[in-house]
Amino acid sequence: MALKIYGVARSRAFRTLWMAKELGLDYEHVKIDFATGETRTAAHLALNPNGHIPVIDDDGFILWESMAINLYLAKRYGAGKLYPTRLEDEARAWQWSFWGMTEVERPVLTALFNRAILPENKRDPAAADAAEKTLAQPLRVLDGVLGHSANLLGANFSVADLNVASILAWARPAQIDMSAFPKAADWLKNCAERPAARAARQLQRE
Ligand SMILES: N[C@@H](CCC(=O)N[C@@H](CS)C(=O)NCC(=O)O)C(=O)O
Hints:
Order of helices and strands: EHEHEEHHHHHH
Strand content: 5-15%
Bound molecules: glutathione
């Protein structure tokens, strides 16, 4: 098999698994787990010196960073479908992907850890509430854009939607109240209900 995806589905590798499923790719799933120290072995560090997942090996081409991986896979295997053909739309796919990582990921993860992941006696409810407040600004931006088009680059679902929605997939377990952002909430629900997203979530339960 030409493509290997490293990383358990309950990590950020979920994003890449979702992408692979959208593209209908044949891949080998190497279930490196962040919780067992497997990301820090010499073998894994040789693939990704950061010691993180996801990583892909696409026929010998090694790539890490979830957004970069998804942009690469979409361009290589989904050009004209999940990946836009116009340069301007391609740039907007990068814009949304960088935006998701820089404006959204940190606060949603802070809320998630302090409401769901950390042991109860280690949770900081004030930090979670502050993170949710921080998140309101990017959610307002998202809601505004989605008031004008069904998806981030226009009518069709693209890599931009997948990348941002895969970061915001944590909003629900983080108990983020999306009621003030109805367009963003509907869009997120539509993204999450796509068969490929469901299939990737199923991998989290295996
Ligand atoms: N910015 C990176 C972050 C990757 C990352 O931190 N992954 C976590 C799992 S979700 C990880 O590998 N943690 C294990 C470790 O750092 O040893 C990306 O988006 O790919």
